[in-house]
Records
---
Amino acid sequence: MNPAKVVRAQVKTLTDLPNVGKATASDLQLLGIHQPEQLAGQDPYQLYLTLCEITGVRHDPCVIDVFMAITRFVDGEAPQPWWHFTDERKKLYSV
């Protein structure tokens, strides 16, 4: 969902989260995450590495940015577009 349209009180499903569409929701389900609250306290980098391991594919590193956006949102931060986290990811993690 577009981060500007996210209303925290109305987030009930994965696709209600900022930046999450059907493909990302499917990836999260592969990780055993079926409800937004399951993202609380999760490490976005570990989610990415686990997703790559499960699928046997090296996913685009921008997936980390999306995981950063949604884990931070669930942990209480304002909704942000995924690209808001790109510079931070590039500084902390090079894949």
---
Amino acid sequence: MSTTLMVDFIISLDGYAGAEGWPGFWGMEGPEYLAFIDSDAEKQHVTLMGANTYRLMSGFAADMADDPGMVAMTAMPKVVFSSTLKAPLDWANTELIDGDAVEAVRGLKARESRPLRTLGSVTLCRALLAAGLVDRYRVVVFPVITGVTGSHRIFDGLPDVALELADSRLFDGRLQLLEYVPTVLDGPPGA
């Protein structure tokens, strides 16, 4: 039996993963959203990431070792795909895979009992989606447009994808969670 893989992003309304000079969550996180991401249900998976996300997040974990969110993240199993990092990695519960990420995730999906979920890692997510390995695509849209300061556009470089809405939720009266079942297309329908 195969486990599921979810690509999970937080984005600005114009599709950026972050923006220069803005705080985390664009300074718009609220108590409902923070409770959601801190819930046990949001911690029962294996986290997949690339080297850049690993460097960023392991740095946060080291700098904020007593932060409850970082403690939980440290305790979770994590898999990092990189040809530049070298084992052993410093962040606890982290496995390094330096081979082909798509093939490695295909193997993880076949043998892992826990769901798989990405953290950041736009390039990794694009490759997994293009390979047809993504079962769910979830975005939490923050109500801000960062056209001048935005960085890391999420959707650029993706194949054409049809999305079937599987779940939606509103947090703190302003943050919209949208969860879809993706279908990668060969091109526009009817073309």
